[in-house]
Amino acid sequence: MQAGARRKPDAPSAKTSTAMAKVKRSFNNRTCEAPYLIFLGPPGSGKGTQAEKLHQSFRLVQLSTGNLFREHIKNETPLGLKVKSILAKGELVPDDLTVQMVVDRLDKPDTIMGVVFDGFPRTRDQALALHQRLDEKAKCITAAVSFRITDDEIVERLSARRTCPKDNSVFNLKSNPPRENDKCDLCGTTLLRRDDDMPEVIRHRLQVYRQQTEPLIEFYREQDMLIDIDATRSIQEIEAQLDEWMPMFIYNANS
Length: 255
Ligand code: AMP
Prior knowledge:
Strand 5 (161-163) and strand 6 form a beta hairpin. The protein has 10 helices and 7 strands. The protein is α/β, with parallel strands linked by helices. It has a domain at 33-150 and 199-254: P-loop containing nucleotide triphosphate hydrolases (Rossmann fold, 3-Layer(aba) Sandwich), CATH 3.40.50.300. It starts with 13 loop residues before the first helix and ends with a helix. It is globular, with a radius of gyration of 18 Å. The protein has helices at 14-25, 47-58, 65-74, 78-89, 95-106, 124-136, 151-159, 199-213, 215-222, 235-254, and strands at 36-40, 61-64, 115-118, 143-148, 161-163, 170-172, 226-230. Bound molecules: adenosine monophosphate. Adenosine monophosphate binds next to helix 3 and helix 4. Residues 43, 65-66, 69, 86-87, 90-93, 98, 119-122, 126, 196, 205 line the site of adenosine monophosphate.
């Protein structure tokens, strides 16, 4: 599909209708103006790749806190200088700085079409702050999608991940290689391995994820908002599954 083309969602399948009924209950007393989706999953589970696809297909804003931090670091802003060493070590940036950055981004008018939160929230306090902020704006989370994958698979994937420093495109030397060796398909810039994609940092990031972020899966499950996806499937299969679910996300948002 071409960038910017809006794909018409198909009618939901029987399976989706069941999931739809389940998700819809959580929103009976709320008015959601647009789909606001949370992608939960360990680093390298494919959240960013799929969030980018939803942006291309449905015009949802991909709100990736990791990308926003990396932009600040590249531009040497005061926030960038503050967080540079935190990212390099694979630690989490403090909640107050992260939430403020997200709130500022949410205030921009393009979020009206909907948002995919990619890598946010990562702690319970971030989740609570997000919900409070959306409540104030009469908006709400439509669903949280949990990308399920094992640690061994992550280490293998992230070791082969290459990113474009210019436009943040993500490739994988094994499963999604660039057309030309080490060059970004979109802009031709030489691809890099992120500092925090080195094996020792990957293991630390996974530990941080399991301790601080994974509990959010239960948090969203208890609120009947959670949908699981098998993140070991191919990029195309996961994209097709998310496309199939889109009608229920949009339906919830507008019901
Ligand atoms: P990502 O690209 O999502 O893997 O994020 C890269 C790094 O950015 C993480 O290892 C953290 O240092 C920082 N980061 C991204 N999102 C958050 C968040 N929601 N809370 C705290 N730190 C974050």
